Amino acid sequence: MHFYPTEKDKKVLARLNGQPYIALAPAAGESNRNIPAPLLDLIVRRLLKIPGLRLVVTGRNYHRFDRAEVTVSYRDPRVVDLVDQLSVSGAAALLQGAVGLVTCHSALNILGWHLGIPQFLLYPEAVKERHFRRKDRWSFGVDNGKT
Questions:
Q1: What's the rounded Cα separation, in Å, for the pair 99 and 140?
Q2: Of 135, 112, 118, 126, whose CA–CA distance to 1 is shortest?
Q3: Rounded to an integer, what distance in angstroms lies between the CA atom of residue 65 and that of residue 111?
Q4: 3-class secondary structure for the chain?
């Protein structure tokens, strides 16, 4: 699959220097669907224990619905904040180069599933109840061995 990142995207992605990274998208649509801060902190701390691995935070802030990305602020050079820095194609290219994905964002989950990227997918209880316990057309990929 080929994505078409912009020239700006290419410059931003070049900062990763080909080092292995996990993409982290801790926000989705509405604040009640974000990864809760204590859990996010635990995930980030555990991932940073893996030698040679970087953590790249992605997402976009929107002014509607008071929606904002979850801030991941760690004074660790292995955490790279790319929120609001990539186009859609750039975010797809970022995901394509990732060794893993941690998200609660369904669009990134779908792309990660399609690309075969191992992922840790977090959804609130209401989403699990609606889509996964009683499978509907939106629950595909959850049984994928890499998810």
A1: 21
A2: 112
A3: 25
A4: CCCCCCHHHHHHHHCCCCCCEEEEECCCCCHHHCCCHHHHHHHHHHHCCCCCCEEEECCCCCCHHHCCCCCCCCCCCCEEECCCCCCHHHHHHHHHCCCEEEECCHHHHHHHHHHCCCEEECCCHHHHHHHHHCCCCCCCCCCCCCC
Going from N- to C-terminal start, the domains of the chain cover: 7-133
At 71-110, the pLDDT tens digits run 666 778 899 999 889 999 999 999 999 999 998 887 888 8
CATH number, domain 7-133, options 3.90.76.10, 3.30.420.40, 3.40.50.2000, 2.40.50.100: 3.40.50.2000
Whole-prediction pTM? 0.83
CB 44 within 8 A of CB 24: yes
